Amino acid sequence: MKKLLLIFTLTAILPSLAEAQPTSDPRVADLVQAGKIRVGIHSFYTKDSRTGELKPVSAGIIFFDIARMLGARIGVEVVPVWHPTIPEMLTCLTDSKCDVGFMGPDPSRAGVDFSPPFVQLDYTFLVPAGSSIQRIPEADRPNIRIAVVRGHASTLTLSRIFKQAQLIYAATPDPTFELLRDGQADAFASVRGVLLGYAPKLPGSRVLEDHYGANLVGMVVSKDQTARLAYITEFIEQAKASGLVQQAIERSGLPGYQVVPAKTN
Q1: Which end of the chain has the lower number of beta carbons within 10 A, N or C?
Q2: 101-156 tens-digit pLDDT
Q3: In 95-225, where does DSSP find H-type helix?
Q4: Can you tell me whether residue 18 is helix, strand or coil?
Q5: b vs e for 147-176, b when ≥16 Cβ sit within 10 Å of the residue's Cβ?
Q6: What would the DSSP string read from start to end of 196-235?
Q7: How far apart are CA 74 and CA 18, in angstroms?
Q8: What's the CATH architecture for 2-119+216-259?
Q9: Which candidate, 12, 61, 102, 77, places its Cα nearest to that of 248?
Q10: By three-state DSSP, how is residue 170 classified?
Q11: The pTM is what?
Q12: Which stretch of DSSP H or E encloses residue 34?
């Protein structure tokens, strides 16, 4: 709850990012006219089953923080659009029902274009107590079952690397973790920060120190939004160079996340 309160106090610092009046930049004139930016959100958020309220979790806390900064810079309201999976969020973007989303680039994700990345999340494994797996390559054996989130960048990368282990899919992180906790999987593959969050729920479990790749997360727009992408690219690079992304990571209180260095001229 403390982490969420930190997010919602972000408005106290937003005036330094944008004036009260909306921007006159023609690249985002459609968003200014609409008075809002619809941000596609996927499994980095949960929905309260009783109230229906959307709550960011794990990296979603950081991404929501960045989205609020972007909205303040443009001078429009940020409207989260809930989708339980990445494929559904991609459809939201390509159908023009979302204006922007957050994800890492992958060749399989067609119909969208990506900004430069702003945060890096290493891919690794969570293994239960007593597991013989000490390093990631040891898990690529025919008798090893690895729980993964369907369509996630960490899963797409692992599927290209591993040749023998069996991947067991679930739609979102919570049921993927349950596969490990219930003994239906021998490891859970995801980004380090997510796995560090789940580890206390499985006593004796370990997050492996090595990694098999990294998710370089940026913003994503549909391919027909070239001008919007250029505006967002400038925003991302300025947010990295000014320390705003690092501040968002620190406000989240989450381990395992690093700022991708800003481009230098």
Answers
A1: C
A2: 998 888 888 899 999 999 998 999 999 999 999 999 999 999 999 999 998 889 99
A3: 153-161, 173-181, 192-198
A4: coil
A5: bbbbbbbbbbbbeeebeebebbebbbbeeb
A6: HHHGGGSTT-EE-SS-SEEEEEEEEEETT-HHHHHHHHHH
A7: 7
A8: 3-Layer(aba) Sandwich (3.40)
A9: 61
A10: strand
A11: 0.74
A12: helix 29-34
Token couple for 8: 């919602």
One-letter identity of residue 70: L
In the chain, what are the domain boundaries?
2-119+216-259, 122-213
AA identity, residue 157? T
Listed in sequence order, the residues at least 6 apart from 37 whose beta carbon sits closer than 8 Å to its beta carbon are 31, 67, 70, 71, 74, 76, 77, 78, 79, 99, 100
Architecture of domain 122-213: 3-Layer(aba) Sandwich (3.40)
Token reading at 249: 């990571």
Which amino acid belongs to residue 238? Q
Q: Which residue has the tokens 């702003």?
A: 118
